[in-house]
Amino acid sequence: MTEILPAEGVFSLLWVLIALPAAGALILLLGGRRTNTWGPYLGILTVVGSAVIAVLMLLAMMAEPAEQRTVIQNVYDWVFVGSFQVSFALQLDQLSIVFVLLITLVGALIFIYSLGYMAHDPDRRKFFAYLNLFVAAMLLLVLANNYLLLYVGWEGVGLASYLLIGFWQRKPTAAAAAKKAFVINRVGDVGLSVAIMLIFVTFGSVTFQDVFGQVGEANEGTLTAIGLLLLLAAAGKSAQFPLQAWLLDAMEGPTPVSALIHAATMVTAGVYLIARSNAIYNAATWAATAVVVVGLITIFMGAIIGSAKDDIKKSLAGSTMSQIGYMVFAAGLGPIGYVFAIFHLLTHGVFKAGLFLGAGSVMHGMNDGVNMRRYGALKGVMVITFITFMAGYLAIIGIPPFSGFWSKDEIIHAAFERNSIIGAAAILAAGITGFYMTRMVAMTFFGKKRWEDDVHPHESPKVMTIPLIILAIGSTFMGMALLFWGNIEYWLEPVVGYESVPTPLPTWVYIVVTLVVVIIGAIIGWVTYARKDVPIEAPRGNLLTRAARQDLYGDAINDVLVVEPTYKSAHALTTFDNKAVDGFVTWTASFVGDLSKRLRRSQTGFARSYALSMVGGAIILLVALILVRLS
Amino acid sequence: MNPANYILLSALLFSIGAIGVLVRRNAIIVFMSVELMLNSANLAFVAFARMNGNLDGQVVAFFVMVVAAAEVVVGLAIIVTIFRTRRSASIDEPNLLKY
Amino acid sequence: MTDFPWLTAIGVVPLIGSLVVALLPKSKPMLAKQIAMIVSLVVLGMTIAMALQFDGKSTEPFQFVESYPWIPAFGVNYSVGVDGIGLVLIALAATLVPVTILAGWRDIEGDQESEGSVKGYFALVLVLEALMIGVFAATDVFLFYVFFEVMLVPVYFMIGRYGGPQRSYAAIKFLLYSLLGGLFMLAALVGLYVVSIRQLGSGTFDFLALVGMDIDPNTQKMLFLGFFFAFAIKAPLWPFHTWLPDAAAESKPGTSVLLIGVLDKVGTFGMIRYLLPIFPAASEFYAPVVIGMALIGIFYGAYIALTAKDMKRLFAYSSMSHFGFITLGIFVFTSIGQTGSVVYMVAHGLSTAALFLTAGFLMSRRRESALISDYGGVNKVAPVLAGFFLVAVLSSLALPGMVSFIGEFLVLLGAFERYIWVGALATLGIVITAAYALRLYQKSMTGPLNPSLEADGNTITDLKGREITALMPIAALTVVLGFYPAPLLNVIEPAVDRTLEIVQVDAPDSGLSLDGLSSEGSEQ
After folding, report:
1. Between C37 and B96, where is the model more confident?
2. Which of A72, A73, A136, A489 is surrounded by the most beta carbons within 10 Å?
3. Reported pTM
4. Cβ neighbours of A613 in B, within 8 Å
């Protein structure tokens, strides 16, 4: 059992981790144009400051024994109503520290890169303000010690994502993509909201330690419901099937945003949520199985979409979906998988950030063109970008000793420990990864020049290439470092649990088979896209390609099933409201009006007819009186 | 003499007055018919006072007379004014105050 | 200072202020505005001073109590006092009035269409403030009724004299609809009085005495309906809502803020203050019906807001949806839900104010058009305006971190505790809310600049100092209370708990039975 330590020493700065970037965002947003010149640097400074604190905390944590690495800081009483008592409390443990490091370190690199990438944007200050907001919210998400506070961070990153996807909102597509991302995420939020409510009524608390400590007392049906609801939330944030449709459109945002939010950190929040709630999934087998299924479907969807897109960022986005599918899949495997889900999340966070920033560097040199069919032969022009991109490429397809190999291999291994069929599926998907990534590299850096006339590719400035180099180094060595030197599985074990089950075949068999499949995929990609000329106009392609270009009809399905019925019923309701509900009100009014119009006719203006009606009335009264008297 | 006969007379006078108001057009005649109705009421009051043996009815009759006098003043003034503007004493002609 | 008649003083100051403003010569509109502003700030200051003396832990049902006989023959007293619920709503009113005055600084004289004078509008605002404070402070049901009805008068003139082209239609509709509700309430009030004569020997309208009675359930059910009808029109609940879109669309932004932001809260306030404690059995009996109406309202309003072409109507329908949430929280009879409802009332007041005022500033820059399609790309030329608009939109969709989230989540949680499926169903509303709110932002603020915004030769300008000063406190309160709601929760919860004690509905089991969800059923 882990002990919970009060926040002392360096850990007393826990709230500062969040407060620094939050203050940065506030100053940049409220300061207005005055902060245009120094604002971006302030933004970077706050994130670097948080990163420094995070590293110090890591060192302090490593000095403690494994059971005493959980720190909780109660900042203040937040929502205290009756039995519902939620503090603004932060929790740092082995799981959250790795996230904090990923967010602040990769974040700092991407901030620096953005300095160059956004150099000419008039709204650069706002961009950094939103990024700061994102970092603060993401840190809150991973540091929260209860589900409600996590929810605040969860929506905070959603807001930052909304603002940044729509950053170039003069483009209607960007604005629409931003709204779409937010609304689809809201569907996931319904899952999270209801999950929190169910957790509260079941356990009487929403803090992690209370909930996980009492999991044994709840019945499995409830736990399954909670697990499925949390999965819905995770699917929304992590772009998993069936809520995947927003991620591809989210590429409308500036590339550093795609790297930080829609590849490295925010979209992995769903994995964090599942790994954090491991106690619930361990006790709810059905929910865990659902997680595996969702992950597996998304692995293939993402890979297929990634194979067909000509837009370099969308292809990478498909790849992100697929890789996060791997993580979700691993998390669904139970205690054999959580640590590797997180492991893959970390390596992926670094190499995918590198790939996206590399793509951004390419776009920077190509007048912001994203169509890979107009790239080609860039390896000689953008040497640093090319080399760093290759590091990321080798990492993602899983060639040893690059970082992706170690993490993906462990996931495939864990899948085989559970079930050979899903293991085989995971290997097949790795092959597709090899194909689409080779396709991307071949179309971008190899082959013939297919540039548009006014494009003059050039290498990006140092402020952009240096982060690329650092991330490339990370892509190369981080896997080994975490596995052999960091002992990631034992580091995370106290939080998420870890167990290893022997597989039917020796380990090297899986490694060899995986590598062979990946290399076959890569060769197919190479043969198709580097050895042959790539046509500038995309060929019509087979049925699957055309489907994949349409995001496997994700949008069409959403439109037919959800959007159109919603708008149709909304229009019908509007008509109903005007015609029936308000119609009744106005009908009542006009009925009274009509009636009085008719009655008015009796006012003829002849004094004698009034007199007659008086006499008539008097006679009626008299008769009535007499009748009453007589009866 | 049976006081009930006074009541009958009063009813008769009232009816004559009412019919006069309803059927005649000349404002002065209508006005006189109204007076007739008022006085028939007075007659009834006095008769009832006599029948019940107290003075309440007589007191009310005085009130009615006072009101009738006031009414004559206002009413005749209106009729004269109307006659001046329209050169007619018919009460069917001034019918502007209608719907 | 505890003997100081705080509530009366807070109510009388704006009344005197309005008299002074009304008596000023018409030629000095500036002076009228300045006096109105100062008076409203004085009221705000006094309210804060009173709130600071409020004892959140007190066991007394009401604080700052005053009581004087008014019509002794009928047992009517002028008696006022506040509990936590009344206090936060008075504070809300006192906060929003100076904000609306500042925001509407130039709304009247710039308008050729309106018939009334500048000083008249500001005098009406101050009268309304006095009446709003009175209605939330009254502890005598008759006094409450008087304030409840008299409030219609200033609002009628504010809509009917200072509004859009259809203003008199909207004003009459508002007045008649509200009067109809008031009529039923009057009948129920008389009925209540008769019951009190039978039960207590002498008739009374005193709230605490009425609460202490034990009314026969069938009588309760009839009287409940009378009060409920008035409150449901005021709140407004589906299907008694159609006066609201017209009123909102035709009135000045400031009028809308006070009308929807504060006045309509009287409906939900009345439910929690009067309906539940006086008619506990009837409340329980009708709860399913009311919850059904609230649920319909949540979705109905949100769906119609999704297709609205006119911003002000959109806000009106979104308010209807929010009132659904508030009513839902009240009628699930849980401490969490009712506290959430009251927090939501405050949050909704703030978000409505932010929405209407920002939209008003926007419309004042484009010949008062409220059509969404007349805008687009505003963010590019007026980023500060767009920023405030976004904050308002997010606050209306209850983004976590804003006070509306606290309210909404507590309401949903309270509902979920009691009726699991009702809570889960209502939660779906947050998706549609996000859809209509962001659709509005997308269509008006993003994309290419709408050509009509440049048609006059110059593009629209960004917010100026006065406008920013008006919006800043609302935005700040929204966020600060979202992260630190304790000042609200600490005073609301004791009041809510007292209400629930009177209603005597058992708290739902903490260990939930999940018969609907689990095949194994509950362990309990």
Report:
1. C37
2. A136
3. 0.89
4. none
